[in-house]
Amino acid sequence: MEEIDSAQSSKSPSTVVTIAIVAVLTLVAGGGGWLVGGLLAPPPATEKAEAAAEMPANATGEEGIPKIATEANGIVQLAPITTNLAYPSENWVRLEVALQFDGIPDVAMAEEIHQDIAAYVKTVSLQQIQGPRGFQYLRDDVQERVDLRSGGRVTKVMFRTFVIQ
């Protein structure tokens, strides 16, 4: 009988050894998860708070969230453009655009560009700006007009909103 008991004990691992193996694997998996989480996690909130404290006073919105589009960053937000389309004339378009200047923004030039964009949008028909391709053509046309008007001082035209009603 002793031969049978020793054979069974050598074939099946004890419960203590199984628990020890599971505990070691759990610790290794937890450590690996902690390491990967530390590498992929966003920076702590203290760095973001310090960056927000360094922003100028006029660069914060009503809720205290820093605004990116400020003249200090070379970006001028133009007044919204609301006008009717050339055809069909009962359709209206509302467009909000921001201009990114290379260097110090020129507000007078931005106003001229605003008027030029408003005049151009009045000549566009609904069929010309329908769909993604039409919107891309409109963006390209506006960018080209802004480049001509600014002499290359405006590096980018950013469409904030575009609504057709």
Automatic annotation (TrEMBL):
Its main location: membrane. The chain crosses the membrane at residues 16-41. Keywords: Cell inner membrane, Cell membrane, Cell projection, Chemotaxis, Cilium, Flagellar rotation, Flagellum, Membrane, Transmembrane, Transmembrane helix. It is a single-pass membrane protein. It comes from the Bacteria. The keyword Cell membrane applies. It is found in: Cell inner membrane; Cell membrane. Controls the rotational direction of flagella during chemotaxis. Belongs to the FliL family. This is Flagellar protein FliL. It comes from Sinorhizobium numidicum.
